[in-house]
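Hi,

Apologies if this is the wrong queue. I'm a grad student, and the batch job for PUB domain-containing protein from Leptomonas pyrrhocoris produced an output file that my downstream script rejects. I'm not sure whether the problem is my script or the file. Here is the sequence I used:
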Amino acid sequence: MSAEGNKTAPSVAKPPTSRSPSPSPLSSDDGNDRNTYSISQSLFDALVARGFSENAIKKSIVAGCVDESTCTQWIQLHEGHPELDTPMEPGVEVVVKAKRILTEAEREAKVKELQERAKQKKEAETKELQRKERERLDMMRKMAHMKNEMEDVRRKMDIDEARREKAADLEARRRVKIQIVADRLQRKGMSKDEAYATAEREFEEAAERGRAEAAEKLAKLQEAAQPSTAKSTSAPAEDGAAGVWDLSAITAAASAEAKLDTVFAGATPASAEELVASIQQHTPAAQSEECVRTLRLILSNIITDPFDIKKRTLRVSTKAFREAVLPIEDATQLLRWCGFDLSTDATGGHTICLSTVLIRKLRHALALLSR
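Support response: The file is valid. Your script probably expects a header line. Output copied below for reference.
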């Protein structure tokens, strides 16, 4: 390039002398020779497809263009310039870097690397999902535990309130009855204080006599139950003939229900296998089979829906429980081994409630009963 050419026309290929051209992300120099530039094969082919000459493309790279858009703008801006198609200055070189084709071994290694990355990513996602699922289950268990505690507190409050109301009602009836007797005594000439004291004394004496008569009557009924049982086994009474009431079933259920406090006050059974074996060996066999069937139904209902408080609460006064489970003490012990506790409902009746559900214990007991 001549000095006269430099005066008549601005330089296109040579960058400003005040600073060296900065390499673009698409070009690279070797760090030692700053006059060597590079352009990717794909960018070069795209510019050639636009109809630009190879010399113009290389000069746009030397000028600092970095992609197809900037190269196109630079070349179009300098179209018609006499130096656009002149050879490159000595020492300035633009190398077109073709995309290297991977060998079969490199391709397999790259595929394995990508597969390993995908596998690791999938494992990480699976672990994250498992962690979130554990957190969700823990939260559900905590919420269920809190709900059970709140229900227990509410149930105890209801029971206490019912007891207070019952005591207040009895006290109100007592005062009314005493006041009626006191008014009658006042009309007979007694003073107010004397009449009230006499009426209160008479009420207490009558209550004491009632309790004594009830105890005596109960004793007579229990004594009459024994000979009636023997009589019923030998020969049934004829229709219309006078006989003694058979209260053996009632007294047996009452006695078994009275033992619940003792059963639940003692130590928790350690082995479910021994309890189930004792239930299955109980005689008569029909009663044992009915007890096993009832226990299996109770446990399977709870396992199916462990959050239903109704299925986890057993009323002792129901016929099914009183006839199938209550007569066999080991059946009650098995329920206690599963986690049931004895409580009293708002009406004063006994209930057996499972506050904390341990699915593992329930399934183990159900499996033993199903053998």
